[in-house]
Give the backbone structure.
Amino acid sequence: MSYSRRIARRRRRAAPLIALALGNVVVLPALAEPPRPANPKIQLAQAPEGGSTNATINLINLMMKRGLLDRSEADELIRQANAEATAAQRRATAPVTAPGGSVSGPAPATGGQMRVTYVPDVVRKQIKDEVKQEVMAQAKAENWAAPGVFPEWASRLRFTGEVRTRYEGQFYPRGNDLTGGLVNFNSINTGSPYDVSNANIRFPPLVNANADRDRFRIRARLGVDADLGEGFSTGLHIGTGDSSSPVSPNQSLGFAGSGQGGNFSKYAVWLERAYIKYEPWKEPGKSVALTVGRFDNPFFAPSQLLWDDDIGFDGAAVQARYEVSPGITPFINIGAFPVFNTDLNFSSAQPEKYKSYDKYLYGAQIGVDWKIRPDTTAKLGLGYYHFTNIEGKLSSPCIVGNASDNCDTDHRRPSFAQRGNTYMALRNIVPTAENGFGTTNQFQYFGLASRFRELSIAGKVDYDGFAPVRVSLYGEFVKNLAFDKKRLKQNAVNNRGPGDPGKYEGGDTGYFIGLTVGSPQFKERWDWAVDVGYKYVESDATVDAFSDSDFGLGGTNLKGFLVGGRVALSRHVWAGARWMSADSIAGPPFSVDIVQVNLGARF
């Protein structure tokens, strides 16, 4: 909108206020000074302490202070008001000829008096306040009273950002397995296949189990969310990360990996969120929302037993809630999410392509928000998460001569994993003279041995009886309903006890219980919170790729404690520390203690 059009619109909106202030004034007594013209001019002046007795001056000063008018505009309005006041005075003092020839009308003004119709102060103040509130509300809604007059679209954007620095120490006690049993299956599956033949005497990729490590890490995020109107919104967020890991946005300083970092090199930025959201119905206690794209976890998850706090979901989700009675609000969350989509050219090494095995997650959760008492609230959720094609499958008989050959179920291996899940060999390699009839060139990939259909029960209770301190007790339980121990006994290549091949020791159950005491939100300096928790998650209770990435260095097949605390150094800056101690449940012994010290800032 042009400057001249903005000025004209401001004048149209301000004119009724000036007219109200000028049109109804009490009769003013003559002043002890030389007589003034019958139509005295009103001058714009600085309001004295306590406010001017002239309503017009007060109102125009207020409008200038709020940015409704500048000095030149105010002068112009005063000139217009004076002209209208002069005309009104002339009409009021003009004699009126009544029927019969008599003249009637108001008594002429004498001694510098100006006579106009009287309106009580109470009524005049009420009218002025109501008009002022209406105009200011409209100015705020349309942003035309804001300094600088921001464009309309700027009011629909919300920017968020975060920077967190961290020291992390990893400490390994004695007694961890150093015989080659702690295989890094993710390293094999994301690289070249591993030759498992008897002629191969080298170890496969292994996880660290004995050498303490220190690292400094950063996490940086920047996001923008926009209200598109008519119930639509969208968002775009970017962030750091050592890799495209779904569960860790942390970038280790000086880490030279994935083609970035080291020697003060720059670090990569990844797309974390990109979504469109539609809310056809939204009011207190009642809402429906559809989200598509890549977005935050749509399910209620009070712990990181199933889902890491940083995970983003790809796909579509519907969330709905409805307050059936005061304080009782049932909700439902459902969604479909592609986990893996087969390469269009698989296998790239041969003209006839293999059948695709796309992996999906279908999730549903029902629950209730319950306000038990004014100082006590609870939230409960029952969820079911069904993964399709995520488990491995033995391939058709295939001939493998070298590491670049493919078999038809190679794409059933996880494209990302942490540690803990049970694995099986994927390739059914045909013995030939080329591979020494099964004694050489046994290049192998590994897939998840178990199917996953997870039943989850989650709950949280908040007690505010010690306000501003809140006490929160929360927990989560998960069981893999598709776990088949008989099948895994035959196929498992890990999570076995001592011996060759050893007894299979994996399991299908996990739980977490935690307690947090402190400020529910960091709004002021020295707000604080401390928490303690215990975690127990067996090997195949949940998919290890998506669970907590910090406890035990990530994944499943872990048990142990965690303790932490945080304090606000300002409204937007906080510091904290956490200690986690984890031990393996099945398979080769593994233990690790982790210490994290954080300093973070949000805006």
About this structure: The helical segments are 3-23, 55-65, 71-93, 121-142, 185-189, 485-491. The CA atoms of residues 54 and 206 lie 85 Å apart. The chain is about 15% helix and 35% strand. The first strand starts at residue 96 and ends at 97.
